[in-house]
Amino acid sequence: MAPSTPLLTVRGSEGLYMVNGPPHFTESTVFPRESGKNCKVYAFSKDGTLFAWGNGDKVNTISITNKGLLHSFDLPKAVCLEFSPKNTVLATWQPYTTSKDGTAGLPNLQLCDMKNGTCLKSFIQKKMQNWCPSWSEDEVICARNVNNEVHFFENNNFDTIANKLHLQKINDFVLSPGPQPYKVAVYVPGSKGAPSFVRLYQYPNFAGPHAALANKSFFKADKVTMLWNKKATAVLVIASTDVDKTGASYYGEQTLHYIATNGESAVVQLPKSGPIYDVAWNSSSTEFCAVYGFMPAKATVFNLKCDPVFDFGTGPRNAAYFSPHGHILVLAGFGNLRGQMEVWDVKNYKLISKPVASDSTYFAWCPDGEHILTATCAPRLRVNNGYKVWHYTGSVLHKHDVPSNAELWQVSWQPFLDGIFPAKRITYQAVPSEVPNDEPKVATAYRPPALRNKPITNSKLHEEEPPQNMKPHTGNEKPLSKTALKNQRKHEAKKAAKQRPKNKVPADSVSGVLFLIDMVFCVSSCDGRVQGAP
């Protein structure tokens, strides 16, 4: 039976505590509130049954189900925590320091055994980026990137390196999700005119010139983000440069690549130029959504052939979030945008709601696939801190505002394994709520007094594109090519232009022309008086 109330964990200047999720929203007795500002980090296990936090003195772990303390580790400076997938190991990281005489510092990456509370192994990990080892979901293998090599350990035996993957200057790697066979994607940046590349391997077949399952090379890549789909059949690679040499974008230049384990690869053709803000896989592993292009940005769902399936048009958005069950998609505009969200039914491609979460710095789906969490946290924003719990139909079910003299640092859902919460039928009618939605209404454009009683002309700063289904209507039709789509739009524009009356001029245009003529006569007469004066 699915639990009715996933927990919310809240960390801020008021302390660390937990709140029962929908529909109760009362403070939970599972975890007694820990007051003070010393809590730097917390983490749940993958199944949500274990919880760890650092209070500036020790790292403590408790069982959520049994409500009891499990272990305390003497790690006062720990700032990163993560459980292994089957809860057998707790990985902790502290900032690396060297002694004053220049000698090497102590190991700062600790792998703690959750059965007996002892330290399994310690490593020196200088950088915080990619600090945590990567486990397969069954914990049979574990991998670390060490000096241009990926070291693999088996069955949590960290005293012996079972296998190595060595390439020149390996910068990053990502293990595939799911069961065996295990796969790994590795990224090697280009140098001296050679291109960067991403290769896919199957563990432990790393040797030989034909060992790679797939290879994709590309230029213009200072860094990459690699995203496996849930079934571990393909990887999306977002390649980014720090500087756009064409000067078109302040944020550099991005390209999107698709690589499949069967050897297929492609560059995902994005119809609008500009940055790639976000890319997200659907949990079905058969499609993905990309948000891209200069504002107003476009959002498009692609299939595994990298063909567009549905185009959401343009809008103020820079993020995409699929629900845990993959049947709902939220397109949102956070950061320097005002927090507008579009909630879509991706089975029927119908818009469900358009809520607004102003000043949000955090977004997360609840594991039940029905509720959404948005929050405004410090240090990104130090005013109006707080969080809201929404239903996907746009209703605010719970709201918590932090006092003006306090700060909210972190808030998150308790995780659950897939399948715990069954998918429910999508509803389009907003669920009832007693919490008022105090989001400001969208401001209308300013109109001068002389034009307020006149018809509104259709002049816009940007041409907005409506949503468009890219699938063929019947099984025999083929999707139009880019050239055919372009010609079709030109034809429709010419047809619409012919239907417009040619002898009518808008009143606003006539008044504007008369105003310019008056100005010309006024300036001419003034010039004549000045030139003819004694």
Structure description:
The protein has a five-stranded antiparallel beta sheet, with no helix packed on it. Strands 3-4-5-6 form a four-stranded antiparallel beta sheet, with no helix packed on it. A four-stranded antiparallel beta sheet has the order 7-8-9-10, with no helix packed on it. By secondary structure, it is mostly beta strands. It has two helices and 36 strands. The chain has helices at residues 482-499, 507-532; strands at residues 8-12, 15-19, 41-44, 50-54, 59-63, 68-73, 80-83, 89-93, 109-113, 119-123, 134-135, 141-146, 149-154, 163-166, 172-175, 183-188, 196-202, 214-218, 223-228, 234-241, 253-260, 265-267, 276-281, 287-292, 297-303, 308-315, 319-322, 328-332, 341-345, 350-353, 362-365, 371-376, 386-391, 396-401, 408-413, 468-469.
Keywords for this entry:
534 residues, mainly beta, five-stranded antiparallel beta sheet, four-stranded antiparallel beta sheet, disordered C terminus
Order of strands side by side in the largest beta sheet?
Answer: 23-24-25-26-36
Low-confidence stretches: 473-477, 503-534
Please, what is the average pLDDT? Answer: 84
What fraction of residues sit in β-strands? Answer: 35-45%
What form results from the Cα inertia axes? globular
The oligomeric state is single chain
Q: How many strand segments?
A: 36
**Helical coverage, percent range:** under 10%
Largest sheet: 5 strands, antiparallel
What is the CA-atom radius of gyration, in angstroms?
28 Å
Number of helices: 2
The assigned structural class equals: mainly beta
